[in-house]
Design a protein that fits this description.
The complex is a heterodimer of chains A (about 110) and B (about 120).
Chain A: E1 4-7, E2 10-13, E3 19-25, E4 33-38, E5 45-49, E6 53-54, E7 62-67, E8 70-75, E9 84-90, E10 102-106
Parallel strand pairs in A: 2-10
Antiparallel strand pairs in A: 1-3, 3-8, 4-5, 4-9, 5-6, 7-8, 9-10
Chain B: E1 3-7, E2 10-12, E3 18-25, E4 33-39, E5 45-51, E6 58-60, E7 68-73, E8 78-83, E9 92-99, E10 106-109, E11 113-117
Parallel strand pairs in B: 2-11
Antiparallel strand pairs in B: 1-3, 3-8, 4-5, 4-9, 5-6, 7-8, 9-10, 9-11
The chains are: A mainly beta (about 110), B mainly beta (about 120).
């Protein structure tokens, strides 16, 4: 199985900050990485797919990058509604594993 | 508006069975692959099972193989998860999730249904 190692596990940032979350795959997965945002008690929401494509309706302050094994989610100009947990996920091969999550707290 | 609505969760004893359903609306259900993803209380996300748009292929995480069965009825726009021999560690919120096919992303999620396995 492909393991997805996410870092950091938690972080705290202020409104307007730039935040970066990374994900490392245990084997090369080209661009088969997706990013999701989950608020407490709610279902996850797709943000970025295929490593760098912005899902329809998602604000442009979210962006993704990476290829192979190392991937990054960047949030520019952090907004109060961005708190919650972010997950990466590989869609290269089953089982479609997720990272352990990054909990973002807004200062 | 595209929607997925799960039902069938509840409290069940270890070793017993439960069947989850997921009704789809607002889109052509038969054109999409479907999945179940679960989240244990306070934990991360775990992909559980997938089924192709036409039901001809399925896949499972190892921990549920031979216990869970995913199926679909495209005539009724409904996805199912038959869960047998339930274990305490199967306790989780189960999400019904849409994808565009193998190697693609999960673009639509239901609100989830809680399954609690407890004596």
């Amino acid at each position: 199985d492909i393991q997805m190692i996410q870092s950091p596990s938690s972080l705290s940032a202020s409104v307007g900050d730039r935040v970066t979350i990374t994900c490392r795959a245990s084997q090369t997965i080209t661009t088969y990485v997706n990013w999701y945002h989950q608020k407490s008690g709610k279902a996850p929401k797709l943000l970025i797919y295929a490593a760098l494509s912005l899902q329809s309706g998602v604000p442009s302050r979210f962006s993704g990058s990476g290829f192979g094994t190392d991937f990054t989610l960047t949030i520019s100009n952090l907004q109060p509604e961005d708190f919650g947990t972010f997950f990466c996920q590989q869609s290269h091969s089953a089982p479609f594993t997720f990272g352990q999550g990054t909990m973002l707290e807004i200062k | 508006q595209d929607q997925l609505l799960e039902s069938g969760g509840g409290v069940v004893q270890p070793g017993r069975s439960l069947r989850l359903s997921c009704g789809a609306s607002g889109f052509t259900f038969s054109s999409y692959g479907m999945n179940w993803v679960r989240q244990a209380p306070g934990k991360g996300l775990e992909w559980v099972a997938m089924i192709w748009y036409d039901g001809t292929n399925e896949g499972y995480v190892d921990s549920v193989k031979d216990r869970f069965t995913i199926s679909r009825d495209n005539s009724k726009n409904t996805l199912f998860l038959q869960m047998n021999s339930l274990r305490v560690e199967d306790t989780a919120v189960y999400y019904c999730v849409r994808d565009l096919g193998l190697g693609t992303h999960f673009d639509l999620w239901g609100q989830g249904t809680l399954v609690t396995v407890s004596a």
